[in-house]
Amino acid sequence: MKKFMRANLAGMLQKHTFDNYNFKYYPDIYCQETNCTYHQAAQKAYNAAHNFCKEIESGNMHTRGLMFCGSIGSGKTFLAACIANRLLSKGIEVLFAVVPDLLDTIKATYDQSKNSDYEREINILDSARNVPLLILDDLGVHNYTSWTRNKIYSIINYRVNMELPTILTTNEDMETLENYLGERTTSRISQLCNIYMLYTPTDIRIIKNKENRHKNSAPRLL
């Protein structure tokens, strides 16, 4: 339990594993955004995540990271959590950070007139910079200012320079992300990660909610 707390992996995310990744939500029909079928794109992303874990487990702690781009509810966070859970089970230190929450946490401590707050901010940034595996979830979902852009750049630039593996998820494509974060950050992301597209025709969470409602409303046989 402590390893999940240190990793900042919430209860629901702890249940996401490669074994329960379900391809049924990715139909075998053409997706314009990926230039292949939904299923083929999901298979590529899944294989990349699985191979990434094998590289880390083999001791290659400088392997290239992954970035999952795609529609809301397409399984990007699920896949990132699969990686986190797999590597946590192997004793590898992971930090799972939702980007808006991470930025808000840093900002809440941002008062250099108070040394303790400033030191806490530095500690948070150092954790994100130096952790063996960093997962940044929901990159691009924030009201970005020059301050927040600089913080993200600081983290990503450091990890590029130190060749530390990083997983990113975003609902945006690279062009839109550049509008949010700036060219220098997206350029660094291109150095840091291989990019995989993940799309679904319908938000998987909506489908699962309907499935659960149907299951709960089904009459029980006596």
What is the second-level CATH architecture?
A: 3-Layer(aba) Sandwich
The helix-strand sequence is HEEHEHEHHEHEHHEH
Spatial separation of the terminal alpha carbons: 39 Å
Which structural class do you get from the secondary structure elements? alpha/beta
Mean pLDDT, to the nearest integer, reads 88
Number of strands: 7
- Globally, the shape reads globular
Rounded to an integer in angstroms, the radius of gyration calculated over CA atoms is 18 Å
What is the tally of helical segments?
9
Main sheet specs:
5 strands, parallel
Notes on the structure:
- Helix 2 runs parallel beside helix 3.
- The model has no long low-confidence stretch (mean pLDDT 88).
- The relative contact order is 0.17.
- With 222 residues, the chain is an alpha/beta fold.
- It has a single domain (30-208), classed as Rossmann fold.
- It has a 5-stranded parallel beta sheet, with helices on both faces.
- The longest helix is centred in the first third of the chain and has 20 residues, at 38-57.
- The chain is built from 9 helices and 7 strands.
- The chain starts with a helix and ends in a 5-residue tail after the last helix.
